[in-house]
Amino acid sequence: MIFLRKTPARILLLTGALAGVAWLASLDYAQKISTNVLDLIPAAERSPELAVVRSLAGEKQARVALFALRVPGDDDDTRDRAAAAFTASLLASGAFAEAEITTDTTSRNALAGQIFAQRLALLLPGWLAENESHDTAALAEKTAADLERFMSKPEALAFAELLPHDPLLLLPTLVEKVQSLDTTSTVTASPAAAATAAASASTATAAPGDTATPGDTAASTSASTAASASSTASTAAATDTAAPGDTALIWTLTRENPLAEAGQKPVFAAVAAALSAAQKIAPDATLRWTAISLFAAESKQSIMRELTLGTLLTLIAVLGLAVICLPRIAGTLNLAPVIFGALLGACAAVTLCFGRVHVLVFVLGLMLAGVSIDYGFYLYLQPRKIPGEPYAAKVRRLLKPLLGSALTTVLGFSLLLFSDLPLIRQLGVFVSAGLLCALVTAVLWFAQIKNPFMQARAFVSAQPRPGAASRRAAIAILALGALIALAGPWRLHWRDSTQELQPRLPRLAQDAADLRAFFGDTPARTIYLTRGETIADARASLEKFTAWHNEKFPAAATASLGYAIPLRADHDALPARLEKLRDFPDALRAALDRHGFNAGEFEPFFTVWKNFTPPANYDATIASLAASLRGQTALLMSTTPGASFLITAADHPASAAEPPAALATASLNQLESLNKLFARYRISALRLSAIGLALVGLGMWLIYGVKRGTLIFTTPVGSCLFAFGLLGICGVTLNLFHLLGAFLGVCLSHNYAIFTAENDARKEQPPPSIRLSALSTAASFGVLACSSIPVVSALGVTVALIVLSALATVELKRIARPPAPPDSPNIPPTFRRRVFDL
């Protein structure tokens, strides 16, 4: 082995180190490293609703920021001026594209005006479809009768000036569909608000072909009044979560993606400047606000702090353990290159293999410090077989267990490359490359040392005194562990949550919950997203979803801007249906007179009907509606090809009854959707882990034979079951990363079982490297167990438990084993070995 000589080994080490450092130094870390939780989801995720959620994250929905500016006291004028100064400062900063105080109804009025202007193009197709069974005379009679009944209702007074423009009751019917939902809430938290406002037709823009009349202004004012009247009851019911009276609510939209640096620092600076502007008017003004950019920035800082502190603590824990257990500090430092070589190789490999790497990979990768040092311990603390044994001979002697422990772990983790989840694939490359680099670094590094052996302190190699009492105690402990391993896992509960992928930020989370409640987002309301390749597809799915929802929740009202959009089939059938109703105006005049109305008062409607030309292009009709969406109302729908959607608000709490997949609708709870996805990935990871363990077990059979390989394999598997059993008894809810930790723990604990089996086969005392390796691994994962990121903590706890359980198992099995029978010519050696094995 020429590479085990000093000079070749040094050249190889330096070449590899320089190549790794050069590669890492050339990277653009802002582009290479991601902190975005959506990067944990495959870009080609098969779940359509989650593909829409991913697209929403890069659009307006992700750029919304909510503000609550509190100005104590009863001076409404000062509060309004402070809120106006705050809003103006935000817009002047350039970091915000839009900002409006929630009492400003400009955006909702613009939407409502567009619906009023297009009322025949948008609402008439559906009305004609509902009444298709009536001929002209019957339809005119029904229309007049419906109008007469409507006039007897109290809310008709609010629509009095609108009805001459709309005797068909198109707009009042739309308002009625959404009247039970709070119209004062913003669409940020409740899209129903803008849908109701849209139904109110609160401006007087004339549609193409319409003849504007002086009564249009009065009609629009009447419509606004009607919308307010229809929502009085629900508004009063919503006061429990309303903002305090001395607080102004401000809805804003930032210009840049909140997950990018450009969407964070400039925004924070603009908010600080805006608060200063408000405080010039109201010195005691205070601010609470929430935005994705706040969470992203704080999460990034928390992760970087944890990465820095975790790396330092891991190195201190691992090297500190070595200092305690080894007699010379200078000799202990010979283990550091093994750790650094593993981390360098792992970082270089994962950044080379993936265009973008999530920062969680590096946080989880801290455990390599404790895992990689194993190979240093095995080589450094293994005594010479004979005095003067050359280093190359020592490596050849240990090569089988070294390769067995390394390759079985690498083999298992290489299967993670087939996972659907990018994080698991990246972690598989990180761990596999790190372990291989650790092994190579350890072999080459100790080839340069004059005396590549260090004797551990005596207490590290100490063995308990054999005796009947100690054997009984060891057997009892093993039996208790077996009982926990068999019974405990049945008590396990699993739940995956994407909230556990980020550090806990309780203050920001509480502010976000309070502000969302101020803006109308309460547990009593459920938001649904109906998607489609085109807006026509989304509208067709909304029709089916509404029917399903009315059946499942008959007492719960719904509101959606989609109700103002016709079905494609009804739109296309409009010209033919109007052709059949050529005499409808005359028939309606006569019917109105019969029911006591003055048909002349409805001349604005008849003028619009006469001049109305059915739009030929469905997409253009809807596009003109979408173009009117400004501010908060812009979140109600999307006409983007391939990612079109409509938002629906339902007046009931979130329910376990999810719409069938055929309805292309899902409750718009982004985290819950992602949680379901991660639960699905857990099943996928479980299958990969099972295949990986089968391959590891097969590897043990190939290297050590079926009998010895099975005995070696039972130690890590039993330790894994014990860890899961203990977690189940303690009532811990497990997730994907507990499963990933279990797989990693099983692969790592093979090392201890393999080296113990090697020493038992040679009837030698176990080397101290086994204990030191297990303790250093447990120490590094113990640091991860203290992480503020729940999934990192879950992985750390799981691996630490399995590793310590495996160490305890090999120690207790040695104590529980009966003493070897004395040599006797009457006892065949084969029989003695079998008894010893048992």
Describe the structure.
With 838 residues, this protein is of the alpha+beta class. The protein contains 31 helices and 13 strands. A hairpin with a 5-residue loop joins strand 10 (637-638) and strand 11. Helix 5 (106-117) crosses helix 9. The model is unreliable at 182-241 and 830-838 (pLDDT under 50).
What are the key terms here?
838 residues, alpha+beta, 13 strands, elongated, disordered C terminus
Write a brief structural summary.
The protein contains 31 helices and 13 strands. The radius of gyration is 36 Å and the shape is elongated. The chain is of the alpha+beta class and 838 residues long.
Task: Walk me through the topology.
Blueprint: H1 6-25, H2 29-32, E1 33-34, H3 48-57, E2 64-70, H4 76-93, E3 96-101, H5 106-117, H6 119-130, H7 136-151, H8 170-178, H9 192-199, H10 215-230, H11 232-237, E4 247-254, H12 265-281, E5 286-291, H13 292-325, H14 329-332, H15 336-353, E6 357-358, H16 359-364, H17 368-380, H18 391-414, H19 422-446, H20 468-487, E7 493-494, H21 506-518, E8 526-532, H22 535-552, E9 558-560, H23 568-580, H24 584-594, H25 603-611, H26 618-627, E10 637-638, E11 644-650, E12 665-667, H27 670-729, E13 733-734, H28 736-761, H29 768-785, H30 790-816, H31 829-837
Parallel strand pairs: 1-6, 7-13
Antiparallel strand pairs: 2-4, 2-5, 3-4, 8-11, 8-12, 9-11, 10-11
Helix pairs in contact: 1-15, 4-12, 5-9, 6-23, 7-24, 8-9, 8-10, 13-29, 15-17, 15-19, 17-19, 17-29, 18-19, 18-27, 18-28, 20-27, 20-30, 27-28, 27-30, 28-29, 28-30, 29-30
